[in-house]
Write a structure and sequence with these properties.
By secondary structure, this protein is of the alpha+beta class. It contains 7 helices and 9 strands, in the order ααβββββααβααβαββ. The strands form 2 sheets. Strands 1, 2, 3, 4 and 5 form a 5-stranded antiparallel β-sheet that branches. The protein has a 4-stranded mixed β-sheet with strand order 6-7-8-9. It is flat.
């Protein structure tokens, strides 16, 4: 019997807790380092102001070490992950990654590597606004028998351009996304950026029996195609599911179009 794989697992099981335990003392010291926290907060704030004209606030009380690339259970003492709040209404949380690799003298100073998720702020704001504006009608669709709206997404830019958010930052800083008072003007700006664009809504139609599922699917499709004015304008990606094995999978895309959003 080859015991090498078993021995490797035993050694690993012993080594990882010992290694993470040894690092935890140094880790706690890093987490409590007020000077490092201050540098992190200043770098994050400067990044927001310089690149996006946004107020960014680093939550250094909730930062953590990144995972080691070879051993994910072991913390990487050279990398810090810091939650960052974008100040505004609605607020949005992203994550900053810092390198804190020690220099030749063993001194660790934070260096901002990137802030993940900030480019998605535009999608978040427009989707939030769309959901607020169409809350009643979307809820009515979701409450139809066997129908579930899985995802609603409004992109701020095309895939070719990336999710750039510069065109809406001024409105965001002015508080125009906190409610639907400025909905029409904001969506008109969005249409100037992406003419003929429609939000994407993913819909699942479900039933335990295939024949019932097919009827529900056809009824929902017919309702979307009816032209009822209460149906939010969007591109609906519909698919069916049933608890019966080998049941037919139905799919359909429907554009409910019209003037504006």
């Amino acid at each position: 019997m080859n015991l090498r794989p078993v021995l490797k697992l035993i050694i690993l099981a012993i080594a990882i807790p010992l290694l993470t335990g040894c690092l935890s003392k140094e880790g706690r010291a890093i987490m409590k380092n007020d000077d490092m926290k201050e540098q992190i907060e200043e770098q994050v704030s400067a990044y927001g102001n310089d690149y996006y004209s946004l107020e960014l606030e680093a939550d250094t009380d909730d930062m953590e070490f990144g995972p080691d690339q070879k051993f994910p259970l072991v913390k990487n003492m050279d990398e810090l992950r810091v939650p960052v709040k974008i100040i505004g209404e609605p607020a949005y949380v992203v994550r900053a990654e810092f390198s804190i690799k020690a220099d030749e003298d063993g001194v660790r100073e934070p260096r901002l590597m990137e802030i993940e998720g900030i480019e998605e702020l535009g999608d978040f704001l427009l989707t939030h606004l769309y959901l607020l504006h169409h809350e009643k009608d979307l809820k009515a669709l979701d409450e139809m028998d066997g129908v579930h709206l899985e995802e609603v997404l409004v992109k701020s830019q095309s895939a070719q351009e990336g999710s750039l958010i510069y065109w809406l930052i001024e409105d965001y800083n002015d508080g125009k996304f906190r409610n639907t008072d400025h909905y029409d003007k904001l969506m008109a700006k969005h249409q100037n950026q992406l003419p003929n664009y429609l939000p994407k809504i993913t819909v699942n139609v479900f039933s335990s029996k295939e024949d019932t599922m097919r009827k529900k699917f056809e009824d929902f499709v017919a309702y979307l195609e009816s032209g009822h004015t209460s149906i939010p304008k969007a591109e609906y990606n519909i698919y069916s599911s049933s608890s019966e094995e080998d049941s037919e999978k139905l799919t359909k895309e429907i554009r409910v179009d019209g003037k504006g959003l």
